[in-house]
Structures are given as C-alpha cells and as structure tokens.
Input
Amino acid sequence: MQLHNFNSGPAILPAQVLEQAAAAIHNFNSTGLSILEIGHRTSWFVEVVEEAKATVKKLMDIGDEYEVLFLQGGATMQFMQVPMNLLDENGMAAICDNGVWGNKAVKEAKIFGPVTVVADTSDKKHTYLNKQLVLPEGTSYLHITTNNTVEGTQWHQYPQVNVPLIGDMSSDIFCRPTNYKQFDLIYAGAQKNMGAAGVTLVVIKKSLLGKVKRQIPAILDYQKHIDAGSLLNTPPVFSIYVSLLTLRWIEKEGGLIEMEKRNKAKAELLYNTIDSLPAFYCPIAKEDRSIMNAVFFLTDPSKEESFLALCKNKGMIGVKGYRTVGGVRVSMYNALPISSVQAFCELMENFS
Output
C-alpha cells in the first residue's frame, strides 16, 4: 500500500534528499567517514555550513546585513531567545496571538519584559487573522507567526510596521517567494519545509543586536553564535546536512516560484473539494486559509472516528487534527506531491 505523508512535522522530505542523506551516513562525500562521525570543525563540515548559509541568503535574496545561524532547541527555544536578546525591561514586545504558538511566544516574552498582545483571535477560535494592528508607543518589535500550523491560518500579506518585525516561519518558510527583507529576524524549525528535526534556522539583521542591557548566557547570545559561525558548540551536524540537501532540492526544482506554484495547486484542490462536499466544512476565513496546513471538520462529528480510521486504512498518515482543535488536518509542505492530495480528495469524495 502506498503511504501519503501528511504529517505536520517532522514532515515529508523529498525522496532525493532521503537517498542522499542515507548514502552520506555510510560514506560522506567519498571521505570514507559517515556524516554522523565527522568533526564539526573539519573543513568538510565547515563547507556544508557555509553552503547552507549562502543558499539561504540566495533564496531569501538578502545581503550581508543579515547573518544566518543554525541553532538548536527548536522554535520553542526562540520563544525565549528572541526576547532575551531583544527585549529590555523598559521596552515593549508586541505579539500577535493567533493560536498555540503565538500564545507560547507571549508567555515566554513576559519573563523578560512588558508584552502587549496586539491581535487576539481567540474570540472566533483562531479561525481568522486580525490585521488591524495598533502598536503601543515604545514598541521594541512586533512578533508574528506567519503560518499557524495548528489552526490553519496564514499571513498572505505581512504587517507594514515601523518597528523591527520578527517572524516565526517554522511551518511555511520557503513555501513561496517572500519579501524576507521586510523582517529583522526570522526563525524556523527545519522539520517542515527545510529538513530534519534537530536544527533551527535563525536569520537576523545584525543591526538589531547589542541593545539590551542584561547579561545573556553565551549559548543564548545571538552575537556569540554569529562570531562563532554557528559553531559555538557542537551543532546538529546531520540535521544541518539534511537542510543543505533540502535547500539544494528547492533550487534544483525551480526555487520559490515553483514551490508556490505547486503549493497553491495542492491547496486549491483540497479546499475546493472540502467546500464542495456537504460532509465536510472548513471554518477558516477564506482569505486567511493556509496553503501549508488545511484544518477542517466533518459536518456530523459522530463520523469523525470512522473517517480517520478509513484514512489510516488507506495509507493517509498524520491527518488527525491537533489535540486542542480536533477535526482533520492535512499538511501540504513543499515535498508533498500533488498526487497525494488527489488521492486524499478522492477518498473524501467516496466517504459517506
């Protein structure tokens, strides 16, 4: 039986990337050593890091005013690392709380300084994005989650603000052409569109740093990581290598323009199918629907268990909704072929 991987993360990887990564476990670049056992300060691995950084900059079309880091701790670590480095006690973090991850960012930022929630969409169970943002005077930065994996919403146009813009892009980075220069700091766990779990991409404008007065532990100080070239401590070597392979694959396939073309086609097919079938409904505002994570429900909740069981029997993996939301969630990251979405839509059409 063919499996269709709709997992929300860790998520599907391109077959080519899996093959190359598997080969490198046995013999990395004809060195006779596994990628799992090479030294992280050897020229072999330094070349991996430098190529990965350069490819990120190329895809984002950004210059040397930005630094690219490969860190650990996931996006969850960034919920606290961002305010630790950027928020003074006399500053103000403005944060959009559009779901689970924005809410976590709010809680962590409050440890380091004042926080204002400038958009809270819990009144409608986070089924839309509030784009009417009013930032308090003295705002240090605005933090948004560009794609809400759990709730199924996505920013399709980013807020235009006159303060530094911080973006958690964990679940939609490199899914489409984006004005990355609009952001002063971007972070993303790699395990959705950019590689394997274990590494977090951080892209930061260098002028943003050095403004807080607190003492920052070395391992959490962005500047220390910049100075060390992402080698301040032993990095997740294999995860960074898989990220490099994935970045190469994106370029080879046609870059972000091609990724957007494919992702829009998959999302349009799925949402049109949902909207056409009385057995299903999607409560997300149409203008805010995510092209990465479609969240929807059965009109008759009593049939949800049987539908999910059918999905499992037909090889549809990872479609059960997040535990706090329920329903169905279909994740359509870059590496997911449209044939998987077609198979899922056919299953929906035949369900009764």
About this structure: Residues 255-276 form the longest helix (22 residues).
